[in-house]
Write a structure and sequence with these properties.
alpha/beta; Arc Repressor Mutant, subunit A; D-Maltodextrin-Binding Protein, domain 2; five-stranded mixed beta sheet; three-stranded mixed beta sheet; 11 helices; about 15% strand
Length: about 300
């Protein structure tokens, strides 16, 4: 059987020959120079040839060593390229998305089944957070953020721009009658998230005169307000797109048809080079196709 040297000995030789320095090779391989020297001596003994001329302050390849290095250099380059291609394919199948918890809960997650059916090869991972993240440091591929858009050094596309509408359970809606006036809200508990001014703006736009917009419980985010509303605590302002399915199947009711437009919207944010990855291109296209769908799947 032909002799096959150990991979560690071949790595020590290739690095030493490339640097013409066992010290530099040791630094690259994270071992001691003595370990590199020992591996090369063992390799020379096993092969029965001298690979290096060892001089007081330098290292030179012998003729046999130079021939061997030419082959080893090509072999290690091919190994590195094959490994890089393999890991790149594995990495390209993973897509990490960050968005707010409210967007994930009410809009994204209910629709993910359609994405998984269309792209079973993409491993989608969701990081629900309000914190602004660094794409490279935090391993984020694409972000969905609520605001005015326009992020320095990043591409930003307006994704979802809809209106706030008062929403409640059918039981609470029944207490308002068939065609209630906005002033009928004076008899209900108004549920707020941290943007408490939204109710004031809606009531002013609707022409309500006798409703105190400052009363009612405040929740730290829209998800808390949503669950309180579903539990029958009162009536909450919700994004129409977040409750489209519940409104369609009448598990929730919007007693007042008028919505409140907002200057804020959900934006798709990503580094300009992100669209070089097919997985990101596919997810972006799917998001915009879903925006055109009125409700998530049953």
């Amino acid at each position: 059987m032909d002799y096959l040297p150990s991979l560690s000995a071949l790595r020590a030789f290739e690095a030493s020959a490339r640097h013409l320095s066992m010290t530099a090779a040791a630094k690259e391989l994270h071992v001691t120079p003595g370990a590199v020297s020992l591996q090369i001596r063992d390799l020379e003994t096993a092969l029965g040839v001298r690979l290096f001329d060892r001089r007081p302050r330098s290292l030179a390849l012998t003729a046999e060593g130079a021939d061997y290095f030419a082959t080893m250099r090509t072999a290690f380059r091919l190994i590195r390229e094959a490994t890089s291609a393999l890991t790149r394919r594995a990495r390209d199948s993973v897509l990490t998305v960050t968005c707010t918890a409210g967007f994930a809960t009410h809009w994204l997650v209910p629709r993910l089944m359609r994405f998984e059916q269309a792209h079973p090869d993409i491993d989608l991972r969701i990081s629900a957070s309000h914190r602004m993240m660094d794409f490279e440091r935090d391993g984020i591929d694409i972000a969905i953020r609520h605001g005015l858009g326009g992020y320095e050094g990043l591409a930003s596309e307006r994704l979802l721009d809809d209106e706030y509408v008062p929403v409640c359970t059918p039981e609470i809606a029944a207490t308002l009658g068939s065609s209630p006036s906005p002033d009928a809200l004076a008899g209900l508990t108004l549920i707020h998230d941290v943007y408490r001014r939204d109710w004031q703006l809606w009531l002013e736009a609707a022409g309500a005169k006798r409703v105190d917009a400052t009363r009612g419980p405040i929740f730290t985010d829209g998800t808390g307000a949503y669950h309180a509303m579903k539990a029958g605590l009162g009536i909450a302002l919700m994004r129409r797109s977040f409750v489209g399915k519940e409104l369609a199947d009448a598990t929730l009711v919007a007693p007042f048809p008028m919505g409140l437009a907002s200057t804020l919207a959900y934006h798709l944010v990503y580094p300009p080079a992100a669209l070089e990855r097919p997985a990101i291109v596919a997810f972006r296209a799917w998001l915009f196709s879903e925006v055109a769908q009125p409700t998530p799947p049953a």
